[in-house]
Amino acid sequence: MITPEKLSLNTATVSKQWNLQQAVEGCLRHGIGGIAPWRDKLHEAGVSQGARMIRESGLAVSGLCRGGWYTAEGALTQSVIDDNKAAVDEAVAIGAACLVMVVGGLAPGSRDLIGARQIVTEGLGKTLEYARTVNMPIAIEPLHPMYAADRACVNTTGQALDICDELGDGIGVALDVYHIWWDPDIRAQIQRAGKERLLAFHICDWLSPTSDMLTDRGMMGDGVIDIRHYRAMVEHQGFNGLNEVEIFSAENWWKRDPDEVLQEMISRAREC
Ligand code: ZN
C-alpha cells in the first residue's frame, strides 16, 4: 500500500488543468507528500518565485523534469549544454532529489542511432561534470523503445546503467513502470543499480489497447502493469523515495476535475 505521504505529483498529470501554484496547493490539500514539476511550469511561475513557493510548502521534490534532448541540434551544441546547465541550477533551486533526463532520440533527419547514443553519452558527461560541483544527482530515464526515434535513444535500464558505469559517480536512473515493465532483464538490472543509483520511481499504467504513444497513459489499476511487483524490486534494494505519479492522458485524466484526479491517484495508490 502506498500512503499519500509517499506519493509525489508529477505536474504532467494535471498539466492541462493547473499551474505550479495550483499543483502545490492541490498536493497540500490532499496530503500528498511531494511534487515533481516540469520545467515549463516552473518557468511560467518564475524560477525563483516557484522555488520559494515549493520550499515554503514543505513538499518534498522527487525530481525536476527534465533535462536532456542532447541530440536536438544534430550535434552537441553549446546551447544544448547551457540549457542542461540551467536545468541543473533549477533543480538545485527547488531542492529536487534529482534532475530527470530524457536524453533525446535520433537527430533530425538522421538514421544514425549509434551516433545519437554517442552524443547522449558525451552530453550527459558534460552535464554531470557541472552537476557534481553543485551536488545534484543526474537521473537517466530510459524510455520504452517506441520512443527511440523521437524522444530517447536510451531504452533499457541496462543501457542506462552502462552509461552510468562509464561516467562514474553522481548519475543513476529514474525508473518509470511505463517504460520498464516489459523488460525481461529488469530484475537483474534493478539489482545492478542498487540503492545508490535508484534515484526516482514513476508510476502510472499501460493501457491495452493503447490509442496514442504519448498521451494515453492509464491511472494505476486501469492497465496491465503489476506496479506492486516493480515497487517491491526497488524497495528491496533500499529505495525509499516517493512514488511519482506521471500520467499523460489527453482523452481522460487531462479532461477531469484535477481534485478528482488527485483523489483517484490516492485511492489507486493504496491498492498498490
Ligand atoms: Zn517518467
Topology, pairings included?
Blueprint: E1 7-10, H1 20-30, E2 34-36, H2 39-45, H3 47-57, E3 60-61, E4 64-68, H4 78-93, E5 99-102, H5 113-133, E6 138-140, H6 157-167, E7 171-176, H7 177-180, H8 186-197, E8 198-203, H9 227-236, E9 243-245, H10 258-270
Parallel strand pairs: 1-2, 1-9, 2-3, 4-5, 5-6, 6-7, 7-8, 8-9
The chain binds zinc ion.
Q: What can you tell me about this protein's structure?
A:
With 272 residues, the protein is α/β, with parallel strands linked by helices. It has ten helices and nine strands. It has a nine-stranded parallel beta sheet with strand order 3-2-1-9-8-7-6-5-4. Helix 6 links the parallel strand 6 and strand 7 (171-176). Helix 1 (20-30) packs parallel to helix 3, helix 2 crosses helix 3 and helix 4 packs across helix 5 (113-133). It is globular and about 45 Å long. The chain starts with 6 loop residues before the first strand and ends with a helix. The structure holds zinc ion.
Keywords:
9 strands; 13% strand; 272 residues
Outline:
With 272 residues, the chain is an alpha/beta fold. The protein is 43% helix and 13% strand.
Structural class: alpha/beta
How are the strands of the largest sheet arranged? 3-2-1-9-8-7-6-5-4
Low-confidence stretches: none
The SSE order reads: EHEHHEEHEHEHEHHEHEH
Shape: globular
β-sheet strand percentage: 5-15%
Mean pLDDT across all amino acids:
98
Total number of strands: 9
Q: Main β-sheet: number of strands, strand sense, barrel status?
A: 9 strands, parallel
Helix tally? Answer: 10
Compute the CA-based radius of gyration: 17 Å
In whole angstroms, the N-to-C terminal distance is 5 Å
